[in-house]
């Protein structure tokens, strides 16, 4: 039975050392850095370069260190935040008392793992989800044996992580699966229904009825294809594997083409106003990705906005002062006459609808954001932001002077692939 188990078998740590149990060091004594062999007050040597002069409080994860007696001698600020335990309450206590961790079955983790006993070749404990006073914490530990395998453990180094980020990721994953399942079910049900009906009763329908059903199947197939494309784009954006095939694009021609497509789809031509500054810089970017950006922003303005949709294109110098008031949507000077900064183009898409409440502006480009509306995947604007940033551009949202939503993105002129 190990030291920790012996202590618990005796009814807890009493401060009276049993046979073979080292006497705990006072809480205030300096302790050598585990794994470096640096003695208190000694020359740190080249091994201390990895610390760069920083303290344990600079670490983003929780760090708890116990010495050979099991006494906690380090409890950093992140550990305080994650556990809710004050450093003063943990320092000087035995590790099992300072961190009374349990697994999901209620077993005391330190008794089960026996860090100061057990196999002499153990060096670490893999990360596990444990409970600390009812709070879930991700815990990993390493056993420092300065003299090699089968020698006493000189320090136990415990790493702590909050589970909130992982839980949030799991919720996002579950929401993505649910959204995809819902969005796929409707068009696939329609496709299955119409094709089954046509196969069974082909002769009973007129050519016009057949054409109507086949057009519906075609539209639903496009919807499924669009959803799959969105999912692939998200995967590539999140993993950094988005590939760009840059070429010279005419931004004015691209905007005009999308406006014509909207008019062809049945929207009145006088609902769209395009203003383009003369002499826009030659822009190198992925033509398909530009179509996705413009298509999403225009569709968003038409579907969820109201009144006239205005598209403005201006020549700018990126990096110049272009501050604006998000409450009014009035932009500052774009710095066209400033010679500093890279040349680029600013494109804004605004409408005259109710706009987006100020408290929701920060959530517009997050996954699954739909505002107060139903329908859609809520992925379009998230993808737009990823595509703009993949071209080293920026995008923001605010309120237009007319009161509606105003999306503004800036793109550098860029370089051809062969030169980047």
TrEMBL record:
<keyword id="KW-0547">Nucleotide-binding</keyword>
<dbReference type="InterPro" id="IPR005467">
    <property type="entry name" value="His_kinase_dom"/>
</dbReference>
<dbReference type="InterPro" id="IPR003594">
    <property type="entry name" value="HATPase_dom"/>
</dbReference>
<feature type="region of interest" description="Disordered">
    <location>
        <begin position="321"/>
        <end position="355"/>
    </location>
</feature>
<dbReference type="InterPro" id="IPR036890">
    <property type="entry name" value="HATPase_C_sf"/>
</dbReference>
<feature type="region of interest" description="Disordered">
    <location>
        <begin position="1"/>
        <end position="44"/>
    </location>
</feature>
<keyword id="KW-0902">Two-component regulatory system</keyword>
<keyword id="KW-0067">ATP-binding</keyword>
<dbReference type="InterPro" id="IPR003661">
    <property type="entry name" value="HisK_dim/P_dom"/>
</dbReference>
<dbReference type="InterPro" id="IPR004358">
    <property type="entry name" value="Sig_transdc_His_kin-like_C"/>
</dbReference>
<dbReference type="GO" id="GO:0005524">
    <property type="term" value="F:ATP binding"/>
</dbReference>
<dbReference type="Pfam" id="PF00512">
    <property type="entry name" value="HisKA"/>
</dbReference>
<feature type="compositionally biased region" description="Acidic residues">
    <location>
        <begin position="336"/>
        <end position="345"/>
    </location>
</feature>
<feature type="domain" description="PAS">
    <location>
        <begin position="57"/>
        <end position="95"/>
    </location>
</feature>
<protein>
    <recommendedName>
        <fullName>histidine kinase</fullName>
        <ecNumber>2.7.13.3</ecNumber>
    </recommendedName>
</protein>
<dbReference type="Pfam" id="PF02518">
    <property type="entry name" value="HATPase_c"/>
</dbReference>
<feature type="domain" description="Histidine kinase">
    <location>
        <begin position="179"/>
        <end position="415"/>
    </location>
</feature>
<keyword id="KW-0597">Phosphoprotein</keyword>
<dbReference type="Pfam" id="PF00989">
    <property type="entry name" value="PAS"/>
</dbReference>
<keyword id="KW-0418">Kinase</keyword>
<dbReference type="InterPro" id="IPR036097">
    <property type="entry name" value="HisK_dim/P_sf"/>
</dbReference>
<keyword id="KW-0808">Transferase</keyword>
<dbReference type="InterPro" id="IPR050736">
    <property type="entry name" value="Sensor_HK_Regulatory"/>
</dbReference>
<dbReference type="InterPro" id="IPR013767">
    <property type="entry name" value="PAS_fold"/>
</dbReference>
<dbReference type="InterPro" id="IPR000014">
    <property type="entry name" value="PAS"/>
</dbReference>
<dbReference type="InterPro" id="IPR035965">
    <property type="entry name" value="PAS-like_dom_sf"/>
</dbReference>
């Amino acid at each position: 039975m190990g030291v920790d188990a012996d202590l618990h078998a005796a009814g807890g740590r009493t401060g009276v050392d049993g046979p073979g149990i080292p006497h705990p060091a006072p809480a205030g004594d300096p302790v050598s850095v585990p794994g470096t062999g640096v003695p208190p007050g000694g020359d740190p040597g080249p091994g201390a370069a990895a610390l760069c002069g920083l303290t344990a409080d600079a670490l983003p994860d929780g760090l708890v260190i116990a010495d050979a007696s099991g006494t906690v001698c380090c409890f950093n600020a992140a550990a305080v935040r994650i556990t809710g335990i004050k450093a003063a309450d943990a320092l000087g206590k035995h590790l099992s008392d300072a961190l009374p961790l349990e697994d999901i079955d209620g077993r005391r983790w330190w008794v089960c793992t026996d860090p100061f006993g057990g196999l002499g070749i153990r060096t670490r404990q893999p990360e596990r989800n444990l409970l600390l006073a009812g709070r879930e914490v991700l815990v990993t530990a390493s056993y420092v044996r300065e003299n090699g395998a089968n020698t006493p453990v000189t320090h136990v180094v415990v790493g702590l992580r909050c589970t909130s980020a992982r839980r949030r990721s799991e919720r996002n994953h579950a929401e993505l699966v649910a959204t995809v399942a819902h969005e796929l079910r409707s068009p696939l049900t329609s496709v299955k229904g119409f094709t089954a009906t046509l196969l069974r009763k082909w002769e009973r329908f007129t050519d016009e009825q057949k054409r109507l059903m086949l057009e519906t199947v075609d539209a639903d197939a496009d919807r499924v294809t669009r959803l799959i494309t969105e999912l692939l784009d998200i995967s590539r954006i999140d993993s950094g594997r988005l590939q760009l095939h840059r070429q010279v694009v005419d931004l004015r021609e691209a905007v005009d083409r999308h406006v014509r497509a909207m008019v062809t789809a049945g929207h009145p031509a006088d609902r769209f106003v395009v203003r383009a500054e003369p002499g826009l810089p030659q822009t190198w970017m992925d033509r398909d990705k530009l179509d996705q950006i413009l298509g999403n922003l225009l569709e968003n303005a038409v579907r969820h906005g109201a009144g006239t949709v205005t598209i403005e294109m201006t020549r700018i110098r990126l990096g110049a002062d272009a501050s604006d008031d998000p409450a009014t949507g009035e932009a500052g000077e774009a710095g066209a006459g400033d010679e500093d900064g890279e040349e680029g183009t600013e494109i804004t898409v605004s409408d005259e609808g109710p706009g987006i409440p100020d408290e929701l502006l920060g959530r517009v480009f997050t996954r699954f954001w739909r505002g107060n509306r139903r329908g859609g995947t809520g992925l379009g604007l998230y993808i737009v932001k990823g595509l703009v940033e993949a071209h080293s551009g920026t995008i923001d949202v605010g309120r237009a002077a007319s009161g509606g939503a105003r999306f503004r993105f800036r793109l550098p002129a860029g370089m051809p692939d062969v030169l980047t």
